[in-house]
Specification:
Layout: H1 2-29, H2 31-50, H3 54-58, H4 64-88, H5 94-131, H6 139-160, H7 162-186, H8 198-226, H9 228-238, H10 242-257, E1 263-264, E2 268-269, H11 272-294
Antiparallel strand pairs: 1-2
Length: 296
């Protein structure tokens, strides 16, 4: 059991670095795809502006909490990185410190970029939903814009950020949470140069918040996308044109068979229920290890 525990902790420690490295490499290969997605979203945004959409001026339903957390995350990363450099400058080589700092900063900005991009697409879908019952423009126009945004969302989660989000934003962060709780807080080692455990607590808080924000925004985006069925049903109740009613029924039937799931790379479902499952697995493992350590 001791060997298994050591192997898992070493794997968690190594994965926290390997996941960040894979995240950067993968992101470089799909940079052109991301540019195409941003161009498409810009085109949709311009169409909404030309339609005089009121929601663009009021800027409703933007996830300000996520934006605030991102700003705080960047500030905390800069502060903790500076403190860590001061504390470790006599214990580590300069080259190793530079590599670790670069990986942490790139990981932070990559995560923030992804969250902002998903929040932006969720907001655009919300604006489209709000305009459909108003009957100010042709229904097919909003339908086409909606499908374009959904396709961009699929592309972002399937190829551009699919693997980085799984191995970096989820895998590396969860591995670091487990390693920090077990190796620094519950059973700290003698060689740890932080008697008050300030840095482990900050790192644990940051990684936990990042995972919660990712799963929360994924769950909220999934619900917003699937709200289209309700919006179309409301429009069908007030619509008197038989042709438009047929369009609504056809699109409702299509949405029924294309229920959206916020998935990364087509295999990792991101919502609140999956977050609870992931938390139960991590907490269960830590409880087993603590009981084994205490009864040793």
């Amino acid at each position: 059991m001791t060997e298994l525990t050591s192997l898992i902790l070493i794997s968690c420690y190594e994965w926290s670095f390997i996941g960040r490295f894979i995240c950067k490499i993968w992101r470089i290969f799909f940079d052109n795809s991301l540019s195409m997605v941003l161009t498409t979203l810009e085109t949709v945004h311009e169409k909404l502006i030309r339609l005089n959409v009121d929601g663009l001026k009021k800027i409703k339903n933007i996830n300000w909490i996520s934006i605030f957390i991102i700003i705080v995350n960047i500030m905390v990363n800069i502060i903790t990185t500076t403190i860590w450099i001061i504390m470790q400058k006599h214990l580590m080589e300069i080259n190793d410190m530079v590599i670790i700092v670069v990986l942490n900063i790139c990981q932070c900005f990559c995560f923030c970029e992804y969250i902002l991009l998903i929040s932006y697409m969720k907001w655009m879908i919300y604006i489209i939903h709000e305009q459909i019952p108003e009957r100010k423009s042709c229904l097919s126009t909003f339908r086409d814009m909606y499908l374009e945004v959904i396709e961009c969302l699929h592309q972002v989660n399937r190829s551009i950020y699919g693997v980085p989000a799984i191995v970096g934003f989820i895998g590396a962060d969860v591995a670091e949470i487990i390693f920090t709780i077990y190796g620094h807080l519950l059973f700290p080692r003698d060689y740890i140069n932080d008697p008050h455990l300030v840095m482990p607590f900050i790192a644990l808080l940051m990684k936990t918040v990042n995972v919660i924000v990712l799963y929360t925004i994924g769950d909220a985006t999934e619900k917003e996308v699937n709200r289209m069925s309700l919006v179309l049903h409301q429009r069908s109740l007030i619509e008197k044109n038989p042709r438009i009613k047929r369009q609504i029924k056809f699109f409702l039937l299509r949405r029924l068979h294309e229920h959206y799931h916020f998935e990364l790379y087509g295999m990792c479902h991101v919502n609140i229920r999956q977050l609870f499952n992931l938390s139960n697995i991590a907490i269960g493992y830590l409880v087993i290890q603590v009981l084994f350590k205490l009864n040793k």
